[in-house]
Amino acid sequence: MSLELVVSNISKSYSSDAILKNCSFTFNSSGIYALMGPNGCGKSTFLRICALLESPDSGDINFHSDGKPVIKDISLMRRITILLPKIGVFNTTVFKNVAYGLRIRNLEQGDTVSRVEKALDFVGLLQKKNQKALTLSTGETKRLGIARALVIEPEIFFLDEPTASVDQKNTGIIDGIIQKLKRDSRSTIIIATHDTSQAERLADKLLFMNNGQITEST
Amino acid sequence: MGSILEGFIKAFFLIVQLDRELLSIIFLSLEVSGSALLIASALGIPAGSILGLKKFRGRGSIITLSNTFMGLPPVVVGLFVYLLLSRRGPLGFMTLLYNPSAMIIAQTILIVPIITSLCHSAVISVDPIIRQAAVTLGATPFQSSFTVIKEARYGILSGVIAGLGRAIGEIGAILIVGGNIAGYTRVMTTTIALETDKGNFELALALGIILLIISLLINIGLHHIQQKGMVRTIR
């Protein structure tokens, strides 16, 4: 059974601007959730708090596995991941970028190679595995970010505007990758997007961020 | 003009014939400056990294001090080390004065601030998103810090090479603490000064040419590293 994420009454403000106001939601099933809302409505803040990159001013974020609470430590951090709008490409090859998450987990070399190649094949970058990652195009960089996250097989995968500033062709490729991911993986995928048509194309559940709170589409 | 030309020709022959005295001076210079560089890197890289990665009380003062010490006058460092190591000094019992170890200590003191400051600058210039990316992929605080240092490697290496450049061309400090003893503490820069004084230009010129070549190689290395670092654009 995958991780369950319970968000309880979280609030967050930046210099007296309340971004999230007693926001609550439970992500309790695998599949794709799309969190929609206009730019600046708090989607990214919500995702960053859920991914434990930031703390809320008040409220709680809790994870459960098989009905039991999970302690928020490094082992939990290794079961979830987030694709940020700015990928943060390491100055090395495409292969080594994707292998990073496995290397820090001290995975065996043989397993690392096969898993990295599988992830690169999944996002269509296997041919570029020996290329310097910094020479990839914006769309390819996003795909690299997805491969880097997928290789660690996260139970919850947050994607913050995965196709922002990506051309139409690469948006189509990334949509295809997410759809393939939905078929092949049992992860919970939570996408923040302002693109309504993308959300409708990909998501099993549509969520709206409005006035610092989340509502589910019926 | 003729004597200068003659000096150059004799210097050229000294280099081509691999003159024993010339070689021993070059090797001692490289040994002293190389050892100082190793010690200074072992101290300066961790210090610069910590200054770049951690926020703690007094950090700003240490950075200011380190930046100020980048321009330490070598003779002042030489005097300071001399006073420390002289028979009546606090470390006089170690009998290190007029010995290559004293020269290594003096050069280490001179280049630690250079390596520390340039390493600090390199680490803080890494986009914070790199550390965050490492965290999102499951890195521990130590692993994410190490990743940032690794991303700063070109800048750090520039600092190390700049340190080597300073050490190899330095004269004031090593002349005071080394004493310029033939076959023991005589290095390239002190030999050039001495032989010029004596009017013996061929050895001085030969060493000058070699020093220039080493300097050129260091600068080519530095330029190459800077070019590599410039390719970096954050995505």
Would you kindly provide a written description of the structure presented here, covering whatever features stand out?
The complex is a heterodimer of chains A (218) and B (235). Chain A has a single domain (29-54, 77-216), classed as Rossmann fold (3-Layer(aba) Sandwich), CATH 3.40.50.300. Chain A is of the alpha/beta class and 218 residues long. Chain A has helices spanning 43-50, 74-77, 94-103, 109-122, 138-150, 168-184, 196-202; strands spanning 4-14, 17-27, 31-36, 58-65, 68-70, 80-83, 156-160, 188-193, 205-210, 213-216. In chain A, strand 7, helix 6 and strand 8 form a beta-alpha-beta unit. In chain A, helix 3 (94-103) packs across helix 4 (109-122) and helix 3 packs parallel to helix 5 (138-150). With 235 residues, chain B is mainly alpha-helical. Chain B is globular and about 65 Å long. The relative contact order of chain B is 0.16. Chain A binds chain B through residues 51, 53, 74, 77-78, 81-84, 86-91, 100-101, 104-105, 132, 134, 136, 138, 141, 148-149, 152, and chain B through 127, 129-130, 132-140, 143, 147, 150-151, 231-235.
In short:
The complex is a heterodimer of chains A (about 220) and B (about 240). Chain A has about 220 residues and is α/β, with parallel strands linked by helices. Chain A contains seven helices and ten strands.
**Count of helix runs of chain A:** 7
Q: What is the fold named in CATH at topology level of chain B?
A: MetI-like fold
Globally, the shape of chain B reads: globular
- Rg of chain A from C-alpha positions? 17 Å
Distance between the termini of chain A: 26 Å
**What's the CATH class of chain A, please?**
Alpha Beta
Q: Percent of residues of chain A in helical segments?
A: 25-40%
| Greatest interface and its participating residue counts | A-B, 27 and 21 residues
The CATH class label of chain B is Mainly Alpha
Helical percent range of chain B? over 70%
Mean pLDDT of chain A: 91
Instruction: Tally the beta strands of chain B.
Output: 0
- Any idea of the CATH topology of chain A? Rossmann fold
Indicate the structural class of chain B: mainly alpha
User: What is the domain total for the residues of chain B?
Assistant: 1
Number of helices of chain B: 11
How is the largest sheet of chain A built, in terms of strand order? 6-7-8-3-9-10
